[in-house]
Amino acid sequence: MNEIPTHLTAAATSSAPALLLRPWSAEDAPALAGCGQDTELRRRTTIAVDDEADAARWIHDQERGRQSGERFAFAVLEVEVGAGDGKLVGNAALKRAAPGSASAEVGYWTAAGARGRGVARRALASVTDWAFAAFGGDGLKRLELLHQVDNTGSCRVAEKAGYDLGAILPPFPPDYPLKGHLHVLER
Predict the structure, then answer these.
(1) Which of 8, 13, 129, 185 allows an S-S link to 21, with CB 3.0 to 4.6 Å?
(2) pLDDT band for position 99 (cuts 50, 70, 90)
(3) What is the pTM of this model?
(4) CA 45 to CA 40: how far, in whole Å?
């Protein structure tokens, strides 16, 4: 298996602080529980976090995914110089990046207060660059990004990050009751 980084970064912009992407930790449970209360996040993702106990289980699932190589999830933090550990603003992940596989999936979500500020696009770009660098030598040539058709914010993020619309997918209830967009980036 390739060397899996503990940290990825995205540079600050003129209007937003730098991002630090790192593995989820048990200390993130309170902030994740807060994010889990967002009805928009719950509507757009399959995350089901009602309290800190749910958050701890979700984080443990991310740790297991990292250990098995099935899913590499990163907590996304905004970091200001001299401001400590940073504030949790989202999640970015690479899923099913098996050695020798030509394709894998990327995904992300942002906390309510971080939407519309380029957090998802910058986190996605960081994970995308790392995925191709880390797994390209093993045959990774294609990354796929999925979202429901009514999620115009995710559609904009995908397009700004260079992912082209590849297909419209049929609904897959109950988790995905609406049609979906499949965006693709090939290297």
Answers:
(1) 8
(2) confident
(3) 0.91
(4) 9
